[in-house]
Amino acid sequence: MIEIMKIISTYAIPVFIFVVLGYGYIKGVNVYDSFIEGAKEGLTTAFRVLPYMVAMFVAIGIFRSSGAMDVLITVIAPVTNLLGIPPSILPLAIIRPMSGIASTSMLAEMFRLYGPDSYIGRVASTMMGSTETVFYTISVYYGSIGVKKTRHTVWAALLADLAGLIASIVVCNMVFDK
After folding, report:
1. pLDDT confidence of 18, banded at 50, 70, 90?
2. Are 118 and 103 in contact, with CB atoms under 8 Å apart?
3. CA 9 to each of CA 1, 3, 14, 119, 129: distance values in angstroms, whole numbers, following the listed order
4. By three-state DSSP, how is residue 140 classified?
5. How crowded is the C-beta side of 18, counted as CA atoms within 13 Å?
6. Which member of 17, 86, 127, 149 has the lowest number of beta carbons within 10 Å of its beta carbon?
7. Angle between helices 119-130 and 153-175 (to 10 degrees)
8. Exposure pattern of 28-59 as b/e (b: 16+ CB <10 Å)?
9. Residue 141: how many CB atoms within 10 A of its CB?
10. pLDDT tens across 71-121, in order?
């Protein structure tokens, strides 16, 4: 089975490329011109999204360096302790909806402090796979198409992230020893 997976992983991307090129040729599409047009649209979208991304990164930097995150953790720690949420997970749970890069950096720091196979490391890893960078994703996707009013998107996405956090803790409690 492992050998089959190695073969599939080795040939998957080249086969996909040839299938796309072959399909385009059969349909009479100039694949190269289509690729160039897509690249132009991608650059246009990147320039349109850039201000939203800069604003998000500045906001995260201010939030972390001002001490607001530490204050927030101090305020919510008593409640999370009652719920069985490890206090060392809280900074990651707070930053994860804002930035993938910052949360990955925090995860690496947690691995360094606690180890990847520790309970904290496993909960953090499971949480990273079960949650999303809500604000970053919304700013990029909505910013690229010019949406300014997100309606219920933010609250629904944050609720989904909370469900991912809770599920991570519950699953890790069921599967791994503390």
Report:
1. very high
2. no
3. 12, 10, 10, 31, 21
4. helix
5. 5
6. 149
7. 150
8. eeeeeeeeeeeeeeeeeeeeebeebeeebbee
9. 14
10. 988 898 898 888 878 888 988 998 899 888 888 888 998 999 999 999 999
Q: What is the pTM of this model?
A: 0.66
Answer for the pair 113, 71: CB distance below 8 angstroms, yes or no. no
Q: Could you tell me the residue ranges of all domains in the chain?
A: 48-175
Q: Which of 134, 97, 133, 127 is nearest to 110 (CA)?
A: 127
- Quote the pLDDT of residue 139: 81
Question: Which residues contact residue 120 at a Cβ distance below 8 angstroms, ignoring those fewer than 6 apart?
Answer: 86, 88, 89, 110, 114
Does residue 65 contact residue 150 with C-beta atoms inside 8 Å? no
Beta-carbon contacts of residue 72 (< 8 Å; ≥ 6 apart): 94
Question: Using alpha carbons only, what angle is made at residue 166 by residues 161 and 170, rounded to the nearest 5 degrees?
Answer: 145
Residue type, 101: I
Tokens standing for 141? 């996707």
* Single-letter code of the amino acid located at 108: A
To 10 degrees, what angle do helices 134-145 and 153-175 make?
150
Read off the tokens for 88: 């060392």
